[in-house]
Write a structure and sequence with these properties.
about 300 residues, globular, mainly alpha, about 75% helix, Growth Hormone, Chain: A
Length: about 300
C-alpha cells in the first residue's frame, strides 16, 4: 500500500510541477531532481525566515517589550530548547512518513511564527517561538532526509548545497524587510506575520510533493540505530554542536548591538552586517557543501 501511494504521489508531482523552472546553476542535478529540490526549497525557505526574524528584529523587540539585553539573551536561549523536539519528531517521521511530517511542520511553523506577533510579554514570545522552533527543525530535517533518500549518490552533495543556499536565503530575507520596519503595520510584529505565507502554498505542496520511495518501501521502521552508524552520528553531532555554538555566539546580537548601542541606521546595518553574513553562509553552503562533498 505504501508503494502504491508513493508511486501515485510521484506521478502527481510530475504533472503538478511540469511547468516549474528547470534551469539552475547546479548543472550536476538533472531536471527531475531539480523539480523535487524546487519543492523542498519552497518548503524550507520560510523555515529560515522564521528562525532568523526575531534575531534580526531584536532591538525593536527589546524596545517594545521593555527587555534588557540580558533578558533577551536568556529568552533566545530558552527558544532554542524547542529544537529538542526533534527527538520526538525524528521517530515520528519514520512512522508516518517524511512527506506528512514536512507538510505538518510547515503548517505549524507558519501558525506559531505568526502567533508571535500577538506576544505582549517576553514570556509569551518565548512560548510562541519555542513551539515554532520545534516545527522549524521538523521541516528542515524532513526536507533534508527526503533529499538524501531521493537524490542519486553522485548528486547528493550538490542537492544539499542547493537546499542550504535556499534556506540561508530565507534567513536573510528579514534583513531586506528590516529597512521598512518603520512603515510596517505593527513594526516587528508585521515581520512575524510574514511567517504565514507558507500556509498559502501548502495545497500546492500537498499535491506536488512526493513521499520518499525508500521510506515507502520499508516494512517496519527500525527502533534502534544500526551499530555501524553510531560513531558517525556522534561525530556529526559534535561538529554540528561546535558549528552552531560559533554561529549563535557570534551573530545572535549582530543586529541588536549596532542598532541599540551604536545607533546605526537600518540601511547601514543592513548593508554592512546581516546581509554580508547571509551571503557568506549561502556561498559556503552552495560551493563548499555542494561542490566539495559531491567530489
Amino acid at each position: 500500500m505504501r508503494q502504491v501511494r508513493a508511486r501515485r504521489h510521484h506521478e502527481r508531482a510530475q504533472r503538478s510541477v511540469a511547468g516549474a523552472p528547470t534551469t539552475g546553476y547546479i548543472r550536476a542535478v538533472n531536471a527531475s531532481d531539480r523539480r523535487l529540490l524546487w519543492l523542498l526549497g519552497l518548503a524550507i525557505f520560510f523555515e529560515g525566515y522564521g528562525r532568523a526574524v526575531i534575531g534580526i528584529a531584536l532591538p525593536f523587540v527589546g524596545d517594545d517589550l521593555h527587555a534588557t539585553a540580558a533578558e533577551l539573551s536568556y529568552a533566545l536561549a530558552l527558544v532554542s530548547v524547542g529544537s529538542l523536539a526533534v527527538l520526538i519528531l525524528g521517530p515520528l517521521a519514520d512512522r508516518v512518513g517524511r512527506r506528512r511530517l514536512l507538510l505538518g511542520s510547515v503548517a505549524l511553523l507558519a501558525l506559531f511564527g505568526a502567533a508571535t506577533a500577538t506576544a505582549r510579554t517576553l514570556t509569551a514570545l518565548v512560548l510562541w517561538q519555542g513551539v515554532a522552533r520545534a516545527f522549524q527543525e521538523g521541516a528542515l530535517f524532513a526536507a533534508t532526509v527526503i533529499a538524501a533518500e531521493e537524490m542519486p549518490a553522485e548528486r547528493r552533495g550538490a542537492a544539499h548545497g542547493l537546499l542550504g543556499t535556499v534556506n540561508t536565503g530565507g534567513a536573510g530575507f528579514p534583513a531586506f524587510l528590516l529597512a521598512g520596519i518603520a512603515w510596517s503595520p505593527g513594526g516587528w510584529r508585521g515581520l512575524c506575520l510574514v511567517s504565514l505565507l507558507p500556509a498559502t502554498f501548502l495545497p500546492f505542496l500537498r499535491r506536488a510533493l512526493p513521499e520518499s520511495r525508500r521510506w515507502a518501501a520499508q516494512h517496519e521502521p527500525s527502533r534502534r540505530l544500526p551499530r555501524p552508524y553510531r560513531r558517525r552520528l556522534l561525530a556529526a553531532l559534535t561538529v554540528t554542536f561546535l558549528a552552531m555554538s560559533y554561529d549563535v555566539a557570534a551573530f545572535t546580537f549582530a543586529s541588536y548591538v549596532p542598532v541599540a548601542t551604536y545607533q546605526w541606521s537600518l540601511s547601514h546595518h543592513r548593508g554592512a552586517g546581516v546581509l554580508s553574513r547571509r551571503l557568506a553562509r549561502a556561498l559556503a553552503c552552495l560551493r563548499g557543501d555542494g561542490v566539495l562533498s559531491g567530489r
